[in-house]
Amino acid sequence: MTSASIQFLLPEILLLVAAVTIYLGGAFFNARRRWRWVAVIGLAMAALVLARQQPGVSADGAIAFDQLTFFGRWLGLGFGLLLILIAFRPLHLGGTPEYLGSLLLIVVGLMLVASAKDLVLLFLALELISIPTYIVLYLGRRDAASQESAAKYFFLSVLASAVLLYGFSFLYGTAGSTNLANIRLTLAGQVPAVAGLLPLGKLALVLVFAGLCFRIAAVPFHFYAPDVYQGTSQVNAALLSVIPKAAGLLAMVRLFDAILPGSDAYAWRTVLVIAVLTMTFGNVLALWQDDLRRLLAYSSIANAGYMLLALAVGLVSRDSMAGGTEWNALWFYLTVYALGTIGAFAVLEHLGRPGLRIDGVEELAGLARTRPAAAGVLAVCMFSLAGIPVLAGFWGKFLVFGGALYVQPAAAGGFQWWFVGAAVIGVLNAAIAAAYYLRIVGVMYFRAPLATPPAGGGYSPGAVGLVCALLLVVGGIFPQPLMSLTSGACPSGPKLSDVRPVAEAGEKRATTPACPMIRGGGEKRGTNGQLPAMPAT
Amino acid sequence: MAALLLIALFLPLLGAVLPFASRQTAQRMALGVAVVVLALTVNLVARYPASTELTATVDGAWLSWTGADIRFSIALDGLSLWLFALTSLLMIVAVLVSWEAIKEQASLFYRLLLILETGMLGVFVAQDIILFYVFFEFTLIPLFFLIGIWGSDQRRYAAIKFFLFTLAGSVLTFLGLLSLVIWNYYASSSEPALRVMTFSIPELTESLQVAVLRGAGMSLALQVAIFVALFAGFAIKVPLFPFHTWLPLAHVEAPTAGSVVLAGVLLKVGTYGFLRFNLAMLPEATAALMPWLLWLALAGTLYGAFVALAQSDIKRLIAYSSVSHMGFCMLGLFALNRLSVQGGVLQMVNHGLATGGLFAVVGMLYERYHTRQIADLGGLARRLPVLSFFALVLTLSSIALPGLGGFVGEFLVLLGVFQRAWLSDGPDWLQLRTIAVVSVTAVVLGAWYMLWLYQRVFFGPLREPARKSDDPPVRDLGLREILCLTPLVVTLLWIGLQPQFFLDRIGATVDNLVKPSVRAMDSGGRSPVPISPVSDKSSSIPANL
To answer: Is B63 in contact with A479 (Cβ distance < 8 A)?
Structure first.
């Protein structure tokens, strides 16, 4: 690892230092309030350092410096800040320093996933999210439901990691390298593969996809989500519904970019089928839920389906969309989904108090009378998740479904009707989803209050909810700024069409990442910045 | 003019976010805003030049990325103008009928009403597809709360059913609208670098027509597919039979202001969408599906009328009469004839005024007697003469008495439908003529159920529900209620006596909108006789009435 990389990773390193300080210090000083501020200051310093960095060309084989990296790192810092603020006055947590330290490690993990360009680093980064998550789930509550929740997540997560690793082993076996750039060249036929192993690319793709589908809670790897969400606290549910999802999608985009050559048609079809299944299962099952966290768990499953649709569209139109806008819909959707979901959990946290957690939909009855501000914020989040204009969620749905209709016949090999069909199923799903989001709004506004929720969760979760709601409203009325954040976020490197299989690749086994082709593409993006994606109006 | 339009559009929204708490401040604020918006609208109508050009255009960048440009673009044309005016007029009615009826959470009520006004005005002036859809969908949120919070017994069910029904249709409409944009993008140039993705409604209309003239128009199969997608949302809004089941429930459960606005304005959003998108942008599909659509519209007209005959609740009866009248409106639009389409557009305005007014009258009766059952009431003409007078005028316009607005609209629609049927010598001449003949019965049925309703409630021996001792005595209309109904009656008379004023402003725009569909009909060999000379002669008939 060169000094440039270390400089590049300074935000992550600062967060690690903060996390370790909190872990160690927490053992000696039991001053809860201070550790929270240490965590917030750590995040702020990381953000300051990150703000001074520019996307550029990576000299290191393991770390990417491109727009996607930066988008993912900012996302990680943002999520981290919101989650720590929700957990500012923890309801059920025994060991606060441990909780905060783990949360910071999870943020570091997400930021590293966005940067990783090497199978080993990518796997470690994903585990850096998973392992602290086990701790976070286990901390505090000792009842059977929370234990079940933690154990279930642990075992299934380990299994998913194993499947992912199995997929990685095929990639390594085929390419003889863990570097994604090299794997890509090998699969594209520019560098000879280990004899006869090239067809294993598809198998690797399926295994990698399956392993990551667990992280984003896609059907059929979604079964854990409702049980785990139900058994844990609001903060943890918020964490589970955004961070593993963001990590899984970042990893998918990064990996698929490398392992697509030779199996791209296969890849988008797989993703598309899973997308349709996921959104339909998630939405239909959510209709029957009476527990808020189970309901939001199914909502997060359904939203994973929309994001997979955006992923499939991105995969199929990588070569045809101008200036790296192919992932715009995915990241835009992820951002507005995360704001809506974090906002909803923040309100629920705010409404509870230590020892009393808001669980059932019925507990919100008449909230518009008893806690009008909280009801308003929650209603905004629900309408945004349902995709009703003029909230930001609408633009997410617009970009995803518009993208699906936009797929060019040539790119999809005459199968663009699959995407039209998926878009039709998708919008009908959006209408189904409105039913359960509206149910929450209806309970809050149309029912007589049963009991006033204590609202003892503190101001800080309430403020997080308010900020999320404001962002959803303002981002809905003025979507351009948010769009300019997400539209450039794509991996650097040449388009697939530039990496045509070449027969006489010879002995040029690229062990260094300084492959001219990759370098050239990266420089192009670096000098142009976001310009190709965003012409001035 | 552009500034006036922009102010009229966003003033209600501004009023809705101002801080006010007490019921009286909220009422006065809402009324003040509605009156100012109406004054601006009157100004806009007075200065509107009768041409096909868009006037009062406001245009600004909203969201753009490579090759695509979504704009904040609003303007008035002959179709928008009257629906815009209808909305701002009915909003005053909506505020005034809520004056005494809404006591709980009044400030929230008026805020939502004002937000709804901006949404509805926006639908009619949006000149960008996405902006149109944003307003179109956005109206659901305030109305959802208006029905769900201030409605009657089944309000929660009604609110959610209304929202989901409408949403389920309109998401498909959304895909249809996007498909138009994307098809046009790919068709705009064979060179990928030169393609432009326009979301502007006038540009799209023009560009799709140019594509047809170039011989590179959309294939019929694709047109039909997009037509069906658009149809899903608009047909539910109108509502066309058999997609009407949400309507009686929502109308009956909604508070009076909600019913007035729902019947008066929101149903027109559906017909407006059909005219603006289906007829103007998908001419071949419209021409090909015309007999089917006419049958559907006719079925709705007759079904609504028969079900209305069987109702025992006044509000339900008027709700079903809406189904019938809107079916008639659609009959006019889908007959693809200059006269019938103009009549259909005028009928939208008439129906908005008359039915909106009738819902207001029902609300006033309910405030006095706390019942809406026809059987509980009778002979009220003696007890409430002023109310009975207004109810009579509105009823007569609803059944198309000459001299009132309803007559002009229905007459033009029937004239156009007959013209279409008898000038057609295509293979479907028989069914077109059948439809034309049967559609006349709708007028008879309309007169039957409306007059019968009026007879039972207002004539005969006085019958009032039993009253509790502490109920206030029943009084005739007060000044506020008279002020609320007078503008409706005056406008209906105006339309009835001087329809040319309205038709002049509708005509040019609407002719332009239906031109592609009429051309598609004619080139399909259905109507080789040129329509325009005939219709020019006959369009002067209503002016001489």
So the answer is: yes
Contact A390 B140 (CB under 8 A): no
- Cα distances from B512 to residues B281, B286, B420, in angstroms, run 11, 15, 18
Provide CB contacts within 8 A for B75, sequence distance 6+: B5, B54, B55, B56, B57, B58, B125, B127
Indicate whether A268 and A258 sit together in one domain: no
Structural domain that includes position A474: 264-492
Give dist(CA B220, CA B209) in Å, integer.
14
A440 to chain B, any CB pair closer than 8 A? The answer is no
Looking only at the bridges linking them, the beta strands covering B197-198 and B68-76 are: parallel
In this predicted model, what pLDDT tens digit does every residue of A446-499 receive, in sequence order? Answer: 888 888 888 777 788 899 999 999 999 999 999 988 888 887 777 766 554 444
**B174 contacts A427? CB cut-off 8 A:** yes
Pair A334, A309 in one domain: yes
Within 324-353 of A, beta carbons closer than 8 Å to B belong to: 325, 328
Domains: count for chain A: 2
Q: What is the pLDDT of residues A223-255, one digit of tens each?
A: 899 999 998 888 899 999 999 999 999 999 988
Q: Quick check: is A39 in a domain?
A: yes
pLDDT of the residue at B356: 93
Question: Cβ–Cβ of B138/A479 closer than 8 Å?
Answer: no
Q: Sketch the domain layout of chain B as residue ranges.
A: 292-464+475-545
| Cα dihedral A240/A242/A244/A249 (nearest 10) | 160
**A512 part of a folded domain:** no
Hey, is the C-beta of A416 within 8 angstroms of any chain B C-beta?
no
Instruction: Give the chain B residue nearest A329 (alpha carbons).
Output: B65
Q: Is A394 on the interface with B (CB under 8 A)?
A: yes
Q: How far apart are CA B153 and CA B254, in angstroms?
A: 10
A128 and A112 inside one domain = yes
* Residue A265 identity: A
Q: With a cut of 50, say whether residue B536 has pLDDT above it.
A: no
Residue ending a domain, among A238, A262, A286, is: A262
Which domain-ending residue is among A492, A509, A527? A492
3-class state of residue B69 by DSSP: strand
- Whole-model pTM: value is 0.90
pLDDT of residue B537: 38
A355 and A445, same domain (yes or no): yes
CA-nearest residue of chain A to B157?
A442
**Three-class SS state of B321:** helix
- Chain B contacts of A475, Cβ < 8 Å? none
Measured in degrees and rounded to the nearest 5, phi and psi for residue A143 equal: -80, 170
Q: How many other CB atoms sit within 10 Å of the CB of residue A403?
A: 27
A328 vs B148: CB contact, 8 Å cut-off?
no
Which strand (E) or helix (H) includes residue B55? strand B55-65
Cβ-Cβ contacts under 8 Å between A and B: the total is 98
CA distance A44 to A21: 16
Place of tokens 């994307």: B182
Are the CB atoms for A66 and A530 separated by under 8 Å? no
Same structural domain, A257 and A307:
no
Nearest-CA residue of chain B relative to A482?
Answer: B63
Strand ranges inside A136-193, DSSP E: none
| Omega before B19 within 30 of 0, i.e. cis | no
Decide if A529 is inside a domain: no
Answer yes or no: do B149 and A395 touch at CB < 8 A: no
Cβ–Cβ of B64/A537 closer than 8 Å?
Answer: yes
Q: From the candidates A309, A332, A390, A397, which should be mutated to test the interface with B, based on the most B CB atoms within 10 A?
A: A390
Please give the pLDDT value at position A184. 84
Residue A81 — φ and ψ, nearest 5°? -65, -45
Residue B404 corresponds to which amino acid? L
Percent composition of chain A: helix, strand, coil (DSSP 3-state, to 5): 70, 0, 25
Contact B323, B349 (CB under 8 A): no
**Residue A517 pLDDT greater than 80, yes or no:** no
